[in-house]
Write a structure and sequence with these properties.
single chain; 476 residues; alpha+beta; Death Domain, Fas; Phosphorylase Kinase, domain 1; Transferase(Phosphotransferase), domain 1; 3 domains; 3-stranded antiparallel beta sheet; 17 helices; 35% helix; 12% strand
């Protein structure tokens, strides 16, 4: 696979030849800004750039409210890219700073528009039989998936498998094919075994010793190399081998002798929080008492992770599963990172991972901190309150986290009462208001202003007082 860079037109080159790293952004002519907007306006790629712009103090230059203002320009047919670059240019920002940010987000074509030289320093090779002289960037080929496995030669069949040194069952790949109907891709509602999409793979239903299980078959996507997938596979096993808690998903075993590595879990009968809030497969709506029960259990599991110096990095409603009794269990630990010291330590990575609709500003800059999990959990709380999906392109404000600005704005029509899911018949507005306020605290732009997950758990437990220890699971 090779990424092709479009050649810069001669006219643009003539305009660019006087541009250097030290050129002020405010000196760029409108034609260059317009070309940049062609790269950055689609799919809101400009947001990936703006969150990395820092003040000299190290704080983000633009708040979420300011980002929201730039985003509103797109609905008027204007360019958010041109507007924020013009604004940033007033601070004596340079082309070099912008190019560094573009390259860090793999926006190489946009970077080449400004400074072709830095792109040519990459491993650029001409294509064979390429008459257009278009350069290409050589990417690592995806090697055949052969993950390093704790037990690469399991011998026991699925029905009699025994735990290996990890404490989990080792399955042969063909055994998992047998119990999932050869990974039958038809949905379970149509008689197949496909349960849905999970992190880095597809999940299928099966049975092991009459125990219903979920088999996640990991498979590389276009932008994920095999080595990275192997890392996620090992990380999941090692994390769940070390950490055990009632609010973490229960792993049964794994397989790594076939074409794809697989992870096997106890099947969660009620699926994910995301699906249950959407009433998928005509499931009844969740009551407010059940939602409080789910939120509290999820916070308890996350508190356990943080107390044991782990940052999940991909907290979302799709990664919170529900068992027969609606006990919440956090899943998908392939991106989890452990700190050798106390959990408050912030780590740094060049690889930006996670789900953008849930990601904290610092997570988009590559910081790994427990407070980013708290931010993501704030989005989950908004989902629980509203029953709305985290992203909906048909909404005026597509990201759910942005709707809180409309609630806070007295000039807008949206109120908290209007935000609350109407499918809840037992809604308690006092409790909902407390939970909404807590969610907003979790969603503070500055991580130092957010509560710890332990403080979130304490508040949710207090909100839940008066409910029974169990949960009915549906609306009354």
């Amino acid at each position: 696979m090779r990424l092709v860079l479009m050649p810069v037109k001669n006219m643009d080159y003539k305009m660019n030849k006087q541009i250097t790293s030290s050129t002020y952004i405010r000196k760029l002519n409108f034609s260059i800004l317009r070309r940049l907007s062609d790269f950055l306006d689609p799919d809101d790629r400009w947001k990936e750039v703006i969150v990395l712009i820092m003040k000299p103090s190290g704080e983000p230059r633009y708040t979420q409210i300011e980002v929201r203002r730039f985003a509103s320009l797109a609905r008027k047919g204007e360019s958010p890219t041109i507007d924020f670059l013009t604004n940033w240019g007033t601070t004596n920002a340079t082309v070099g700073e912008l190019v560094d940010i573009l390259k860090s987000n793999k926006l190489l074509a946009a970077a080449a528009l400004l400074l072709p030289e830095p792109v040519s320093e990459l491993e650029v090779l001409p294509q064979a039989k390429n008459d257009s002289n278009t350069p290409t960037i050589k990417l690592e080929p995806q090697s055949r998936l052969l993950p390093v496995c704790p037990n690469p030669h399991p011998e026991k069949p699925a029905q009699t498998a025994e735990p290996d040194s990890t404490g989990y069952l080792s399955f042969l790949y063909h055994e998992l094919m047998d119990i999932t109907g050869n990974f039958d891709d038809r949905p379970t509602s149509e008689g197949g075994n496909r349960l849905g999409e999970g992190g880095f793979g597809t999940v299928y239903k099966g049975f092991v010793n009459n125990l219903p299980v979920a088999v996640k078959k990991l498979s590389p996507e276009e932008d994920i190399l095999a080595d990275e997938l192997r890392l996620q596979f090992r990380q999941e096993i090692e994390t769940l081998k070390t950490l055990k808690h009632p609010n973490l998903v229960d792993m049964v075993g794994f397989s790594c002798d076939g074409q794809y590595p697989c992870l096997v879990y106890v099947l969660m009968a009620n699926g994910s929080v995301l699906d249950r809030l959407a009433c998928m497969e005509e499931s009844p709506p969740l009551s407010w008492s059940t939602r409080c029960f789910i939120a509290t259990g999820s916070a308890r599991g996350l508190d356990y992770l943080h107390s044991n110096h782990h940052v999940h990095r991909d907290i979302k409603s799709g990664n919170i599963l529900l068992d027969d009794n609606f006990v919440a269990k956090i899943s998908d630990f392939g991106l989890t990172r452990a700190s050798a010291t106390r959990s408050s330590v912030t780590m740094q990575t060049e690889r930006i991972v996670g789900t953008r609709a849930y990601m904290a500003p610092e997570a988009l800059r590559g910081e790994i901190t427990p407070k980013s999990d708290v931010f993501s959990f704030g989005v989950v709380l908004l989902e629980i309150i509203s029953g709305l999906p985290p992203v909906d392109e048909n909404r005026e404000m597509p990201c759910l986290m942005e709707l809180r600005y409309e609630i806070e704005d007295e000039d807008e029509d949206l109120t908290l009462e209007g935000f609350v899911d109407k499918k809840m018949r037992d809604a308690d507005m006092a409790q909902l208001e407390r939970t909404y306020t807590l969610a907003c605290k979790c969603l503070e732009d500055r991580k130092v202003k957010r509560p710890t997950i332990k403080q979130v758990l304490t508040e949710l437990e207090d909100v839940s007082k008066g409910f029974s220890a169990g949960a009915s699971g549906t609306g009354s």
